Amino acid sequence: MIHIRDLQFGYGSSNFQLTVPVLAVSSGEKLAVIGPSGSGKTTLLNLIAGILKPQKGSVHVGEKQVDALSDDGRRDFRITNIGFVFQNFELLDYLNVLDNILHPYRITRALKLNAAARTRAVDLAAQMGIGDKLKRKADDLSQGEKQRAAICRALLPKPKLILADEATGNLDPENKMRILELLFDSVTEHGATLVAVTHDHELLPRFDRVIDFRDFRLSQAA
Fold this sequence. Notes:
Helices cover 37% and strands 22% of the residues. It has helices at 41-49, 71-81, 97-106, 115-127, 143-155, 173-190, 213-221; strands at residues 2-10, 17-25, 30-34, 56-61, 64-65, 82-85, 161-165, 193-197, 209-212. It has seven helices and nine strands. A hairpin with a 2-residue loop joins strand 4 and strand 5 (64-65). Helix 3 packs parallel to helix 5 (143-155). The radius of gyration is 17 Å and the shape is globular. It has a five-stranded parallel beta sheet, sandwiched between helices. A four-stranded antiparallel beta sheet has the order 2-1-4-5. The protein has one domain (2-221): P-loop containing nucleotide triphosphate hydrolases (Rossmann fold, 3-Layer(aba) Sandwich). It is of the alpha/beta class.
């Protein structure tokens, strides 16, 4: 599903430099990425999603070389194939919860907003425990409720790849396990792949594989 080779990325004048000689993630795999803040975990997700472009190297997701696509091409590919749960939610405060969940369908012709999509949005919200919050503005939600709305939005198009940046970081223990189960169920149901950045080591046994980003980067420098 994911194949990265000879990747290099840095932020302008910053000393930060991410180097990934080789990284492969199999289709259907549930991969956890751990490591200290600032080590490049979120940057890696952004490169996989095509939000960022590497200075060198290649990023393939499925049959597509993401970094070779145009800006519009990367956006459309991301919206239709990748469910991204952002650490800072990326909700629009002036929209209600339902419209935030449906938002990817309104910004590209690659997705068709129909009755089935609306029904699935409502069903996902109910599963997440925010079915009674659909008419509220995003700004009126708690942090945990915003997180669950963001997860609904990511899962709505039934993506083949789910990228989750601290997807359970703002949730209480009970909701944390419920949301993780929903993510895993979506992976299984749709034959999808999950790459999740997390600081919660309690969750790690649930994943197929764990990359410690600190060791990963040290091995690259060796």
